[in-house]
Amino acid sequence: MFTRLLDFDSWTILFWRGLFGGGFIAVMMVLTQGRTGLRDLANMGGSGWLVASLLTVAMVCFIPALQLTSVSNVAIIIATQPFVAATIAWIWLQEASRWQTLLASSLAMCGVAIIVGDVRAGPDMLGIALTCLMTLSLAAMTVTVRRYKNASMVTAAAASNILGSIVSIPFAQGIESVAGVDLVILAMFGFFQVALGLTLFVLGSRLLPSGQASLIATIETPLMPFWIWLAFQETPAPRALIGGALVMGAVVADIISDKHEKK
Length: 263
Prior knowledge:
Elements: H1 2-5, H2 10-33, H3 35-42, H4 45-68, H5 71-78, H6 81-92, H7 99-116, H8 123-147, H9 154-168, H10 181-205, H11 210-217, H12 220-232, H13 238-262
Helix pairs in contact: 2-3, 2-4, 2-9, 2-10, 4-8, 4-9, 5-8, 5-12, 5-13, 6-8, 6-11, 7-13, 9-10
């Protein structure tokens, strides 16, 4: 929704969002941890920088993906993240995947195939490709946070935003032209979507299995297109609705089967 409200190139949005997001996270760290938070930022270590790098890749892909293809396409492909995370966790951490999760993964992939099946070369295809890369990066980040749960990963979230801003500088075309209401929207973008949302997700990922953390995050799948439809009347295409139903069905079925199995 914030992206649709801003009439700037993706690099300019990335610069300001990263600046505000990283700044807000740093302030939150200082307020809650004092000097310890600043020391954590200066001594993240290899695992922290790995998380920061993966988040930076995801952020750099996210904004242009929203500008190139529909919000529903982006939301639905992101919804496959839990299955990608489960696969990475199985390869890297030897976290066994349930047969129900494997079946749900296959169903979700069918849903994505329906969405991209009629995509032609051009902006739409590039947007979907960027979304796929973002999903892979976020899934790898989720597993990394799970693997190094004793490290301070909130600092990595702050660092990723600063990295995103630095990477954007050579390519941004309108940094100096942002002012007034647009600056307020970018500040809200940085606080609500990055500082608050990302920090809570990173903290929660340390306490849950990789697949479960990603599954909870998929609540954004129906909400993203809903808000855009409500504010901008952007209606999802029939293929997106069919593919989205398959993906969300797979996610819900996996959650239900997991709960029954643990009873």
